[in-house]
């Protein structure tokens, strides 16, 4: 999936954050405090995903990512960075981050992928929010105010400066790769990073 005109239009509407705007090119992502993290938050190895809930390859790789976290519960933390690449993706991302405001991001994240073929249905975001007992008034206010639009904007800015052109796109420390990789390919990269970290201790 290519990040196209839809994502670019958001950048034109809102000014770039100064600290990122001053940089023409990035070699690795910047992790923000607002970025959802799954796994050991103190892990030395970061697996950072730039993804889109409407991306079929992102949905496909979900089971692999969960298997990685089970296999490396102490060594790996998964960081999610949502970037819009399909029609209505921005609204879906806003809904996901509004669930984070109530501490339920990863439950909502899983529901969005599980219901990927239903995301165009009316009131789907509120139905999913109800399924995990979110405060619907707070959720509605967050969506209406586009509370997390700046965070999405920062992710888009980073994606451009990292030369990301598709989702899912991953970084493991300084290594980068795209697509729904197999568990074995992830494992080879992670094992190499674990050995490197051990040598540097």
Question: Can you walk through the features of this model?
Answer:
- The chain is α+β, with helices and mostly antiparallel strands and about 200 residues long.
- The chain has a single domain (about 5-200), classed as Glutaredoxin (3-Layer(aba) Sandwich), CATH 3.40.30.
- The chain has helices at about 5-15, 20, 55-70, 90-100, 105-115, 125-130, 135-145, 150-160, 185-200; strands at about 35-40, 45-50, 75-80, 170, 175-180.
- It has a 5-stranded mixed sheet with strand order 1-3-2-4-5, with helices on both faces.
- The longest helix has 17 residues, at about 185-200.
Give structural attributes:
201 residues; alpha+beta; Glutaredoxin; five-stranded mixed sheet; disordered N terminus
Could you outline the blueprint of secondary structure elements for this entry?
Blueprint: H1 5-13, H2 18-21, E1 37-39, E2 45-51, H3 56-71, E3 76-82, H4 89-100, H5 105-114, H6 124-131, H7 136-144, H8 149-161, E4 169-172, E5 175-178, H9 183-199
Parallel strand pairs: 2-3
Antiparallel strand pairs: 1-3, 2-4, 4-5
Helix pairs in contact: 4-5
